[in-house]
Design brief:
Chain A is mainly beta and 787 residues long. Chain A is built from seven helices and 53 strands. Chain B is 10% helix and 44% strand. In chain B, strands 2, 3, 4, 5, 6, 7, 8, 9, 18, 19 and 20 form an eleven-stranded mixed sheet that branches. Chain B starts with a helix and ends with a strand. Classes of the chains: A mainly beta (787), B mainly beta (286). Chains A and B meet through helix 7, strand 46, strand 47, strand 51 and strand 52 of A and helix 1, strand 1 and helix 2 of B.
C-alpha cells in the first residue's frame, strides 16, 4: 500500500511539475554541411539546466517557464548564446559554425568543456574524424582502430593484429557498430588497417565500461561508428592518394536541406605494385581491398527523418589462377527518427549485416577433381526501436526493444570434396529501460536494466553425449534432430538481467567522482585459438553445450578539469569478472567441425586496472598522455583427460595482458599551413610460453610446454611523426589540398610481435626466434584534398 | 589448405616483418620420459626411449638403456623387445599385429638408471585398424608453373574404404632417405574422403613427395593409426610448423598415450602406435 501511495505521489508531482514547465526541443546541425551534431551541450544559465544532443542531433529540455540565456556549445564550434523567453513549448533548431583558427586557440568557453564532469558516463572515449586525421598514421591511412589503441584501456596483441582488446576483453567481446549494423571483422589485410574509411566517418564513440542499457550482446565494449549523413547545403567532397590506397568521398544535397547523400569508396593497390615484380609468384599474387560507403538522409518534415546507409568492403587474395581467398562485410541500415512529441523521440532501425568469407581454388582450374571451395557467412537481421523520453529537467528516460536473428553458416565446401556444415540459427531479443536522473545539481544517476534472452533454433542435428562424461568424440551417445524453428537451447532465466548503474557526484566546478557497475551477457563467441584471429575464424552461438558468457564490471573514476577545461585529467580503476569464457582443448580442431563443443572448454577470467589520462583539447598544442596499469588472467578447470589440462588448471595471463601501456599523442598547429604531430607508445611485452624442455619424435624436436604465458616478450616502444602541409589555395575557390608526410616507427625499432621456438630446417638445431612485424622505419606521403 | 599458409607469409614479407634468431635463457623444467614406438602387421615392433633435454641445448636427447620393454596383444604378453647393440635406447622385437586386436607396451626402467630409475610406464591400448591397398602408381613430368617446380612427380592411386572413422599416416623416402623434418609429418582422416578413390577420376591421384629427377626412386608408406594417434601427431605438427606468423595457435603440451603404471596422472611423452602398413615404390621415369 505504501508503495502505491509513493508511486501516486511521484506521478502527481511529475504532473504538477510538468504543468508549470515548457519544453524546448530541436536539432543542432553543422552550419557548413547540415550534418547532425552529436553531443552538443544545450543549457541555460541562471538557473542551470542542460542536456546534450543525441546520436541524431536532437535535444529536448523541459524547464520552468521563464526567460533564460540559452547556450548551444560544442568543441570546435562557436557557441551560440541567445536570450529566450519561454511561455509555451517551442522548437528551436540551431546551426553551429566552426570556430576560426584564432578562436580555437584563444577562446575557451566556460561550459562547453565540462561535459565530462556533468555526465555520469565513464569509460567512454569519443573521437571525431577530424581528431583522428591529425594523428600520425601508418602509411598515411586514417585508421580508427589504430587510433583507439592509443587510448587508455585499449590495446592489441601486437602490430597488425586483427581486432582490439578493451580492458582485458578478447577481440570478440567488442560490439562494433557501423550505423547500428554489427561488423564481424573490423580489419583489412588481416589486421593491418581498419575497415572504416576516415572520409566517410563522422563520429566514433567507444564504451569501455558503464555501457548504456541500449547496448548489449558483447561483454567488453561498444564501438559506435557513425557515417556522415551527407552535406545538405552544397555539393562537396574529399579524398586522397596515398601509398596504399586512393579514396574519394562525395556528398551533397538532392533537395537542399531535405534530401542529401554521401558516397565514398576506397581501394588499395598493392597488387598493382606486385605486377612490377620480376618474381613470377609475386607478380601473379592478388592482394587488395576495397570498401564502399553510402548514405541517404531524408528530412521528411520537422518530426520525421529517414536514413538509409550501407557499407560493403572486401579483401581479396589470390595467387595466379590457383586459388582465391577473400572476406568482407556488407551492411544496410534503415533508420527512422520520429519525434512523437517534443519530449518523446523514437528511433526505429532495421539492419541487415552479412559477413562472408571464402577460400578455394580458382574457378578455371582445369582439373575438376582438384577444385575446392569453402564459403562461409554470418547473417544478422536486427530490428530495434528506442525511445528517449525527456520527462522533465531531472529525468531522461531511454527505453526500447531489440531483436536480432542470426544465421551462422560455417561452411559449404564444394568441388572435388563436398560437404555442408550445418547452419545454426539463433534469436536474441532484448528490452531495456534506463533513467538519467539529475538528483541534485551535484548528483546524477544513470540507472538501467537490460534483459536479454536467447534461443538456439533448429533445423539441426545435435550430437548427444553420455551424461556425466566429458564432451568428446568418444562419449557420443546419439544424435537428436531438431526441426526448423524448434528450440534446441534457450537462455531466458534471471541470468539474462543486466543491471547498469552509473553515478556521478560533482564535488565542485572542476571535479567529479563517478562510480559504475554493469553486467553484460554475450551469446555468440569467436572460435579461434590463434594469437590473433584470422578472418576465416568462425563464430558460434550459445547452444546446448556452449553457455552464454557473462561479465560483471565495477569502476570508480576521478575527473578533474584545469584551466577552465583546457586540461582534463581522469583516473579510472576497474575490476571485471568473467564467467563462461570459451577456451580450447590442447590440439583443438576448429575448422570444418560440426560438433565444435568437443573442442571447447569453459573458462573464467578477471581483469583489473587503473587508467590515467591527461588531455588537452584546445589551443595550438593539443593531445593526450595516457597510462594504463592492468592485469588480465584466465582459468580453466582441469579436466579428466590431458587435452583438458590448460596450465594445469591454474590461472594464467591472457595473451593480450600488458602490464604497462603508455601513449603520448601531440599535435601542434604551427601555422595556417603546417600542423605537426607525434605519437609515442610504450607497452610491456605480452605474455609468451617458453618450453620447459625438448621432446623428440622420429628426429623431430618439439617444445614441451607445461605452463601457459608464464614469461613475457620484450617491451614495446615506437615513435611516429607526421607533418601536414596545407598547399596554397585560391581563396576564391573551395578547393583545398594538402600533403601529409608521416614516418611510422621513426627510430626503426624491431619490436617483437612474438618469440617462438622452432627446429631449424637445415641444421636440425632448435632455436628461439623473434618475429617483428613493422621492423623498420616506414615513411609515407599522402595527398589529400577537399572541396 | 596448405596454400593458405603460403599467402600469409607473403603478406608479412610485404609488410617488412623480420625474424631474428635470438639468445634466450630458457630455464629447463622437470625431466620427462619420452617413449615412441609402434607395432605393425609387417615390420618388427620397435620402441625408442628418451629423456627430455634443455630446449636450446645442442646435445641430443639422452636415451635410456637397459629398459625392459614388453609388448601385449589383447592384454596377453607377446614378448619382450631387445635393445639394439649399436643404438642405445632403441628396442626391437619380432612381434606382429593383427587387424582388430589391441596392443600396448609396458616399460620398466631398472634400478640404477640415471633417469626414472625403478619406474614402470605403460601405453594406452591401441587397436590395429584397416589400411587400404595401393591400386597403382605412376610418375609424370610437369613443367614449371606458379607454385610448382619443374620435374618429375610420383603418384599413387587407391580407394579409401567405406565407413567413417579411419585415420592414417604417410611417410615418404626419396632414394631410401626418409623425409624426416617436422614439415614432412603427414596425417589425415576420412571425414571428407570416406570411400573416395584417388584415381584421377573421382579425386586426383595422391602425390608422393615433391619434384624429382629421372631415375630417382620414391617410396611411400601408408599406415593406419587410431584417432588418438592422429590427434597426437596433428598437435605435434601444429606446434612445430605453425609458428612464426601473427596467427600462431596457442602453445600446448603434446602428451601422448604414455603414463606411469602406478600413477596414471604422471604422464610421459610420446606415443605407441598399432598400424597396418601398405607400401609402394615408384621410380621416376618418362
Amino acid at each position: 500500500m505504501n508503495k502505491t501511495i509513493t508511486l501516486f505521489t511521484f506521478l502527481l508531482f511529475s504532473f504538477l511539475a510538468t504543468s508549470q514547465t515548457v519544453t524546448i526541443s530541436g536539432y543542432v546541425k553543422d552550419a557548413s554541411n547540415g550534418e547532425d551534431l552529436i553531443g552538443v551541450s544545450v543549457y541555460t544559465t541562471e538557473p542551470k539546466h542542460g542536456t546534450v544532443t543525441n546520436s541524431y542531433g536532437f535535444y529536448s529540455l523541459t524547464i520552468p517557464k521563464g526567460t533564460y540565456e540559452l547556450n548551444i556549445s560544442f568543441i570546435g564550434y562557436a557557441t551560440i548564446k541567445k536570450t529566450v523567453t519561454l511561455t509555451a513549448n517551442k522548437t528551436l533548431n540551431y546551426q553551429l559554425k566552426e570556430e576560426t583558427e584564432e578562436l580555437a586557440e584563444v577562446i575557451v568557453t566556460d561550459k562547453k568543456l565540462d561535459e565530462n564532469l556533468r555526465t555520469p558516463e565513464m569509460g567512454v572515449e569519443e573521437l571525431s574524424a577530424k581528431e583522428i586525421k591529425k594523428i600520425p598514421q601508418f602509411l598515411g591511412e586514417v585508421d580508427v582502430v589504430r587510433t583507439l589503441t592509443l587510448l587508455p584501456g585499449v590495446s592489441t596483441v601486437g602490430e597488425g593484429a586483427n581486432g582490439f582488446n578493451v580492458r582485458g576483453g578478447n577481440v570478440d567481446q567488442n560490439l562494433i557498430l557501423l550505423d547500428d549494423a554489427p561488423i564481424f571483422s573490423s580489419s583489412h589485410l588481416f589486421g593491418f588497417f581498419s575497415i572504416f574509411n576516415g572520409d566517410a566517418v563522422k563520429d566514433v564513440k567507444l564504451y569501455k565500461g558503464g555501457m548504456p542499457s541500449q547496448y548489449g550482446g558483447r561483454m567488453s565494449s561498444v564501438l559506435d561508428v557513425r557515417q556522415k549523413d551527407g552535406n545538405s547545403k552544397q555539393f562537396s567532397g574529399s579524398g586522397g592518394i596515398g601509398l596504399l590506397s586512393t579514396r574519394l568521398m562525395l556528398e551533397g544535397p538532392i533537395i537542399k536541406d531535405k534530401l542529401s547523400y554521401m558516397i565514398a569508396g576506397r581501394r588499395s593497390y598493392l597488387d598493382m605494385f606486385l605486377r612490377l615484380s620480376s618474381d613470377p609468384e609475386l607478380k601473379d599474387a592478388i592482394i587488395y581491398f576495397y570498401d564502399f560507403n553510402a548514405k541517404v538522409n531524408y528530412t521528411i518534415n520537422e518530426r520525421n527523418k529517414v536514413y538509409l546507409s550501407a557499407y560493403f568492403g572486401k579483401d581479396v587474395f589470390g595467387a595466379a589462377d590457383l586459388f582465391d581467398f577473400g572476406w568482407g562485410n556488407g551492411t544496410a541500415t534503415l533508420r527512422w527518427n520520429y519525434l512523437i512529441n517534443p519530449k518523446l523521440f523514437l528511433n526505429t532501425t532495421l539492419v541487415y549485416s552479412d559477413y562472408t568469407y571464402d577460400l578455394g581454388t580458382a574457378d578455371d582450374e582445369a582439373e575438376t577433381f582438384n577444385t575446392f571451395n569453402w564459403k562461409s557467412r554470418i547473417r544478422n537481421y536486427v530490428g530495434k526501436s528506442s525511445f528517449t523520453y525527456y520527462l522533465n529537467v531531472k529525468h531522461k528516460l531511454n527505453f526500447g526493444a531489440e531483436v536480432t536473428y542470426y544465421v551462422f553458416d560455417p561452411g559449404v565446401i564444394s568441388g572435388a570434396i563436398s560437404t555442408v556444415l550445418q547452419k545454426e540459427y539463433a534469436l536474441e531479443p532484448a528490452i531495456y529501460l534506463e533513467d538519467e536522473w539529475s538528483v541534485t545539481d551535484k548528483l546524477t544517476v544513470l540507472g538501467g536494466l537490460r534483459y536479454s534472452w536467447f534461443y538456439n533454433l533448429g533445423e539441426r542435428n545435435v550430437q548427444l553425449y553420455t551424461p556425466g562424461e566429458s564432451i568428446n568424440v568418444e562419449n557420443v551417445s546419439g544424435v537428436q534432430h531438431y526441426s526448423s524453428g524448434e528450440i534446441i537451447a534457450s537462455y531466458s532465466g534471471l541470468e539474462g538481467i543486466e543491471p547498469r548503474l552509473a553515478v556521478n557526484y560533482r564535488l565542485n566546478q572542476k571535479t567529479s567522482l563517478k562510480l559504475s557497475y554493469n553486467r553484460n551477457r554475450q551469446y555468440i563467441h569467436l572460435i579461434s585459438n590463434n594469437t590473433s584471429p584470422t578472418p576465416v575464424d568462425i563464430w558460434r552461438p550459445a547452444g546446448k553445450y556452449i553457455q552464454p558468457a557473462t561479465v560483471n564490471q565495477i569502476a570508480i573514476g576521478y575527473f578533474r578539469n584545469f584551466k577552465d577545461g583546457t586540461y582534463k585529467l581522469s583516473a579510472e580503476t576497474y575490476y571485471k569478472s568473467y564467467q563462461n569464457l570459451v577456451d580450447y582443448k590442447n590440439g583443438a580442431e576448429l575448422i570444418f567441425n560440426d560438433n565444435i563443443e568437443t573442442e571447447l572448454l569453459p573458462g573464467r577470467g578477471k581483469s583489473y586496472g587503473i587508467e590515467l589520462m591527461l588531455e588537452k583539447q584546445v589551443g595550438k598544442l593539443t593531445g593526450w598522455l595516457s597510462y594504463t596499469l592492468s592485469k588480465t588472467q584466465i582459468q580453466v578447470d582441469k579436466g579428466p583427460t590431458p587435452d583438458e589440462w590448460i596450465n594445469d588448471g591454474n590461472w594464467f595471463n591472457a595473451n593480450y595482458d600488458k602490464t604497462h601501456d603508455i601513449s603520448l599523442v601531440l599535435t601542434y598547429h604551427l601555422s595556417n599551413r603546417w600542423d605537426l604531430s607525434a605519437n609515442f607508445a610504450f607497452q610491456t611485452g605480452r605474455p609468451m610460453s617458453p618450453p620447459e624442455s625438448r621432446g623428440v619424435f622420429e628426429g623431430v624436436a618439439y617444445p614441451v610446454y607445461t605452463s601457459r604465458n608464464s614469461e613475457r616478450i620484450p617491451s614495446y616502444n615506437r615513435l611516429d611523426l607526421s607533418a601536414n602541409w596545407q598547399l596554397k589555395n585560391n581563396p576564391e575557390k573551395r578547393w583545398k589540398h594538402s600533403l601529409n608526410f608521416s614516418v611510422y616507427n621513426a627510430y626503426g625499432r624491431k619490436n617483437a610481435y612474438s618469440i617462438f621456438f622452432r627446429q631449424n630446417e637445415d641444421t636440425g638445431q632448435p632455436e628461439a626466434v623473434r618475429l617483428s612485424i613493422f621492423a623498420t622505419v616506414i615513411p609515407s606521403v599522402t595527398y589529400n584534398f577537399n572541396f | 589448405m596448405k596454400k593458405i599458409y603460403y599467402i600469409i607469409p607473403l603478406m608479412l614479407v610485404l609488410f617488412t616483418n623480420c625474424q631474428d634468431v635470438i639468445d634466450l635463457n630458457v630455464a629447463e623444467g622437470e625431466k620427462r620420459i619420452i617413449i615412441n614406438g609402434r607395432i605393425t602387421d609387417t615390420l618388427a615392433a620397435e620402441v625408442s626411449i628418451y629423456v627430455t633435454a634443455d630446449y636450446l641445448s645442442t646435445s641430443p636427447n639422452p636415451r635410456i638403456s637397459n629398459a625392459v620393454v614388453k609388448v601385449y596383444e589383447n592384454n596377453v604378453l607377446m614378448g619382450q623387445l631387445s635393445e639394439s647393440g649399436t643404438e642405445p635406447g632403441y628396442y626391437r622385437g619380432p612381434y606382429f599385429g593383427t587387424e582388430g586386436n589391441n596392443y600396448h607396451i609396458e616399460v620398466f626402467i631398472p634400478e640404477g638408471s640415471t633417469y626414472f630409475s625403478n619406474t614402470t610406464w605403460v601405453s594406452g591400448a591401441e587397436t590395429m585398424n584397416r589400411i587400404y591397398p595401393i591400386d597403382s602408381t605412376y610418375s609424370v613430368f610437369k613443367p614449371k608453373a606458379p607454385f610448382q617446380d619443374e620435374g618429375y612427380y610420383a603418384y599413387t592411386m587407391f580407394t579409401e574404404p567405406i565407413g567413417k572413422g579411419d585415420n592414417y599416416r604417410e611417410r615418404i623416402w626419396r632414394d631410401d632417405s626418409l623425409y624426416a623434418t617436422q614439415y614432412d609429418l603427414t596425417v589425415y582422416d576420412d571425414e571428407f574422403i570416406d570411400g573416395r578413390s584417388f584415381n584421377n577420376k573421382d579425386l586426383s591421384a595422391a602425390q608422393v613427395g615433391g619434384e624429382g629427377e629421372l631415375g630417382e626412386v620414391y617410396k611411400v608408406e601408408y599406415s593406419s593409426i587410431s584417432y588418438e594417434g592422429r590427434k597426437f601427431l596433428s598437435l605435434l605438427i601444429e606446434q612445430t610448423t605453425q609458428v612464426g606468423s601473427p596467427f600462431d595457435p596457442a602453445p600446448a603440451p603434446i602428451y601422448g598415450n604414455i603414463s606411469n603404471a602406478n600413477d596414471p596422472n604422471q604422464l610421459g611423452l610420446g606415443y605407441f602406435f598399432a598400424s597396418k602398413l601398405t607400401y609402394a615404390t615408384i621410380e621416376l621415369k618418362d
